[in-house]
Amino acid sequence: MGFPTNSTRAGTGEAVELRLPRNKVSPRAKAYWFVRALIGWIVLFAAELVWFLTGDDANAGLHVTGLVVTVVVAAAHLVIMPRWRFAVHRWEITPDAVYTRSGWIDQEWRIAPVSRIQTVDSERGVLQRLFGLSDLTVTTASSAGALKIHGLDVEVAQRAADELTGNAVASEGDAT
Amino acid sequence: MTTLPDVVAEETGTGEGWRRLSPRMLVVHPLNELLRAAPALLAVLVVGATSGRGPWWSVAGAGALVLMGILRWFTTTYRVTPRQVQVRKGLVRRRVLTVPTDRVRTVDVDAQALHRILGLAKVSIGTGRSDKSDEGIKLDALSKGAAERLRGELLHRRPVAVQAGENTEGNVPAPDPEVVLASLQPGWIKYGPFTLSGFVTVGIVAAFVFRLISESNVDPDRFGPFRVVFHHLSSVSIARAISEAIVTLVVVVVVASTVGYVLAFWNYRLTRHSGGTLHVSRGAISTRSTTIEERRLRGVEISEPLLLRAVKGARILAITTGLRVGRGAERGGTLLLPPAPRDEAERVARDVLTDPAAVSAGLVSHGPRARRRRYNRALGMCAILVGILFVLWATDVAGLDLALASLVLLPIGALLAADRYRSLGHAVSESPSGATLVGRHGSLVRRRVMLSRDGIIGWNVHQSFFQRRSGLATLIATTAAGHQHYEIVDVELAEALRVADQALPGLVTPFLVHPNV
Lengths: 176, 517
Hints:
Number of strands of chain A: 8
Oligomer: heterodimer
Structural class of chain B: alpha+beta
Largest interface: A-B, 44 and 50 residues
Radius of gyration of chain B: 27 Å
Helix content of chain B: 40-55%
Largest sheet of chain B: 7 strands, antiparallel
Strand order of the largest sheet of chain A: 2-3-4-5
Helix content of chain A: 40-55%
Strand content of chain B: 25-35%
Order of helices and strands of chain A: EEHHEEEEHEEH
Largest sheet of chain A: 4 strands, antiparallel
Structural class of chain A: alpha+beta
Number of helices of chain A: 4
Radius of gyration of chain A: 23 Å
Number of strands of chain B: 21
Shape of chain A: elongated
């Protein structure tokens, strides 16, 4: 293929995988994701309904079809999404590293060394507060390296943040 | 108090070491706005702005901008103390920006044509704070001498002397011996046409002419040259008119690209200074010189746009904290080597990297599954486009010839996929002086990224739905330098993890499992 002679094919080494991060997020996150998505769907459904009721009757069939499709897609999304996300979202903090897996259709593992952590933010929206949840964001000097853990129990998030800020003593100057 | 008394003497300073930008900026702002508003002004003055108030609004806008520019001069002051650089600015909302001098990574001094005529230079001070959009400090502008001295003070400082207090040593650093790593060779100018930078120039000129026409409400048909061109084009066949237009465009772009290359890289020099800095200076009309602290250089990227690759040319971009990779021929000051012979690019890369072996390290290819993915993606895109055009033909929206013509996309897509696969490769190079992650990808622009171990902060492993199905992953090294993240695309998951473990030992190890053991 025009490569230097010392090139080898990939994948000839032993099989190795990433193990799952140890912790799941709070089970209440499923309810939170469900409610958040439900609100979005209700807004869309209401908009369609208003359009149907105020519009002319010529397209009534089309409107009804639209409403039915919306309800079916919404139901599927609401049933599948929270469970799937709950299964995928995982996190772990060791003395040396923060390790997360996130995503839904696409999945992403992120690993950042504790020694390069710059900030630890925990964040709570209005809706999250109702569910006693909190998001934790860990940033490093790279703008592409932020680790986000969604849907943690408030106390767990607080403990994790304390642990990380205690460990991260900015050992290497400014950690860039 | 200040460590730069002679600069204070030169600029009109105020108490406690606060100084102003060069007073010559009071001339620059009006002149700049005058130039920008030139089409509108021409329309008003020459043509007399027969109808509409548009041009007058443009002139009023320019006046307001001039006023703001002048206000900015009066409200902006800066000072340099042994520990920090501070800038005060803002009329209503006063802000003080403070950067500790030991956080200064790069100093970029550039001068546009007008600045240059007036002996001015703009200074941009880059820090490692890359997660914020308004990073660093910009001083627009100082006198040229003041700018150079500021650069010397910030980057060639002697830490001990600075900490010892004020004015213990000579303030202007002794002229340090420099080593020239590369300088512009006349032969390189032949790469100019292959950069296609002329397209931008042509676009700018076209936009200027278009604006002039629309603001002055002149019917282009009444202009001599336009009329001749239109007349000629409408008298010949369509095929001939199109081919003539293309030839003209190519000639103009080639000429503009070559001129652009010469203007941008005239006097190009890459030098290494004893203070541990790399210095890039270049430019004929506008000059630019960038100083990079060498211990902040995290790697380099050898990039080969397709046309340049065809004539065995390449350019080098620096991957360093404090300098974001910008757009255009200048790449935001990160350009270490303008388009030059590939051999020269490799030599320079070896010179500046801590691990020179990385430049010629053999790459591991990504295997048949990655190749299939390249074809699926390239051909899939083309097939969708072709499909849409055939549907449009079937529904009588578009003609059959358009749909048939689009079939040519398929072989082009296949070629692109083949070349994109050929580009894919990665390696971890280890030598006594350091380890480097090497990744190569891309066809239209092929990039070989060499990122040193200390530049890598952590890893993201990304798998899209389709990648998961074929056991592939994209390994992303996060870094505080350059683009902030560098990717190794479509590598088998196990290989990605092996690479991550080798490039940055220890970090991923606790999270690996061997399912077969």
